[in-house]
Amino acid sequence: MPPESKNDMNSGAQLHFRALERLYTSAPINDKFASRLELPAEGRSRLTFTIDEAVFHAAGAAHGTIYFKMLDDAAFYAANTLATDRFLLTTSFNLHFTKPVRAGEVVAEGRWVSGKRRVFVAESRLVDAEGEEIGRGTGTFMRSHIALSSLPGYSASE
Fold first, then answer.
1. Is residue 156 over pLDDT 70?
2. Fewer CB near the last or first residue (10 Å), C or N of the chain?
């Protein structure tokens, strides 16, 4: 492949990744969380969350919905880096809790596993500020009929 073709593909991928990051930021649900999405490469995502007492259950740790939010988002965006035309939908997600999440920064790392046509499989893991894994998940995602280009957060330019 000629060098300029490879560069064009890389810049197209980077535009898609930045548009997905804007899409994440534009979702109203994400106004409720101190979080930031980064898409470093195809099939990869990194979501940084700041956990505080506002999301704690009665025993003083983050509620399980927070685990799901972080793990699902990380896996979803890792998979959607491979789908440049359609918004993906979560069709199933399995969670494994390994340690309570308390206040501080938590990173969710997402990784695409398989599928590129209709169904995608991706996994994610949560790591606390000490570098310990605190949760893990695997999701199945399906192409929707929603064009990414139709979503204001995706199509808006910086």
1. no
2. C
Cα–Cα distance for residue pair 70/137, rounded to 1 Å: 10
Q: What share of the chain is helix, strand, coil (3-state, %, to 5)?
A: 35, 40, 25
- Edge-to-edge strand order for the sheet containing 44-51? 34-38, 44-51, 104-114, 119-127, 133-147, 86-97
In this prediction the pTM is: 0.91
Tokens, residue 14: 């980077």
**Measuring CA to CA, which residue among 35, 38, 59 is closest to residue 48?**
35
- Determine the distance from the C-alpha atom of residue 48 to the mean position of all C-alpha atoms in its chain, rounded to a whole number: 10
Any idea which residue has 């649900």 for tokens?
A: 29
Fold (topology level) of 3-155: Thiol Ester Dehydrase; Chain A (3.10.129)
Kindly state the average pLDDT of the residues 58-65.
Answer: 95
Q: What is the pLDDT of residues 12-27, one digit of tens each?
A: 999 999 999 999 999 9
Site of tokens 């994440």: 24
Q: In angstroms, rounded to a whole number, what is the distance separating the alpha carbons of residues 130 and 43?
A: 25
